[in-house]
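Quiz preparation item.
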């Protein structure tokens, strides 16, 4: 018995750095075992187990909720919570009760991602009675646009730097003084039209048009979107747009609204290749490119695959015209996801896969895929 006690004391005296190194290389199964059976490594194992939570079913949600209730130290370990469930759970009341309970316990939560549609009767962004949300998020990806407490929640979350919202409930406006650190905004045209104006820190915008009518109007129109982007107090340098029609959004409108762009991505999967090539080489397009004097990276995404003959003849002609209109343009992904880079000697050439400058700053996830 004495030898066992001595062994435990020795393990408890291990340097914290060594304990961290040992636990860091363990997989999920080993971490679970350490958290249950190894007292000296339990705290560090639980810190890694609960740091980034991914919950995809109601049973797991209940277990996590109960685990945080019985051990307060676990609450401080939760930094990221992701709930990729897209279907409504059978017991939705229990689901929302557990989720709101977890949010009220996870005081150090920095990132929240959920694609579940909340019900109006039990809004998730409103904390349970008698409690409050102490966390300060840095990233929020959600469908909570239909939550009546969304505006109040965003006003309280002053540390959010990255925000993705699907849909908008058309309720009260978010004050321009809210979200002072918001730098990356992703959403539908309507969401961006509501949130972009007056945000001094915004530099990265991804806009997707989601609508059911052929000719959308109001806050879902391209014109409203560009007006909102032009009213953003900061300088937007990265912009991604999903375009359903080539006439809906002209490049010269983008150039006037956000002339500070350095990266521009246009999703045109709905259009035939020949129509895109014709539209991207006409006079209006060239005039629009001339307005983007800081543009360095341009990405055109097409669904239709072009023939080798089209690639060899039309592409080089188009790229040469673009460079003449926009002298700062050095990197292009177009078409067929080929990366082109401009060299002072030799002109345009297909870039190598190892070229870091020819790659966008991050991957783009289309909202239509969610």
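Solution:
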């Amino acid at each position: 018995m004495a030898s066992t006690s001595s062994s435990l004391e020795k393990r408890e005296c291990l340097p914290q750095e060594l304990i961290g190194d040992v636990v860091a290389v363990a997989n999920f199964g080993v971490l679970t075992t350490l958290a249950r059976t190894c007292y000296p490594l339990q705290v560090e194992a639980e810190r890694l187990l609960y740091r980034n939570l991914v919950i995809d079913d109601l049973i797991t949600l209940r277990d996590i909720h109960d685990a945080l209730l019985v051990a307060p130290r676990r609450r401080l370990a939760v930094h990221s919570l992701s709930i990729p469930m897209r279907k409504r759970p059978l017991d939705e009341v229990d689901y929302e009760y557990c989720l709101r309970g977890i949010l009220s316990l996870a005081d150090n939560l920095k990132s929240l991602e959920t694609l579940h549609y909340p019900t109006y009767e039990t809004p998730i962004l409103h904390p349970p009675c008698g409690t409050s949300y102490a966390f300060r998020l840095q990233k929020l990806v959600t469908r909570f646009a239909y939550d009546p407490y969304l505006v109040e929640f965003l006003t309280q979350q002053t540390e959010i730097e990255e925000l993705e919202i699907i849909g908008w409930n058309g309720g009260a406006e978010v004050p321009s003084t809210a979200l002072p650190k918001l730098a990356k905004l992703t959403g539908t045209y309507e969401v961006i039209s509501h949130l972009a104006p007056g945000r001094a820190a915004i530099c990265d915008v991804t806009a997707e048009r989601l609508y059911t009518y052929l000719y959308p109007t109001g806050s879902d129109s391209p014109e409203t979107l560009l007006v909102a982007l032009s009213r953003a107090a900061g300088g937007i340098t990265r912009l991604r747009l999903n375009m359903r029609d080539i006439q809906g959004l002209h490049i010269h409108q983008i150039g006037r609204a956000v002339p500070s762009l350095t990266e521009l991505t246009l999703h045109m999967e709905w259009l035939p290749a020949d129509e895109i090539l014709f539209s991207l080489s006409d006079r209006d397009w060239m005039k629009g490119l001339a307005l983007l004097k800081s543009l360095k990276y341009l990405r055109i995404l097409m669904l239709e695959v072009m023939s080798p003959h089209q690639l060899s003849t039309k592409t080089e002609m188009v790229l040469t015209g673009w460079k003449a209109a926009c002298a700062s343009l050095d990197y292009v992904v177009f078409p067929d996801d080929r990366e082109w880079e401009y060299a002072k000697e030799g002109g345009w050439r297909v870039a190598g896969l190892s070229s870091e400058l020819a790659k966008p700053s991050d991957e783009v996830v289309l909202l239509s895929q969610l």
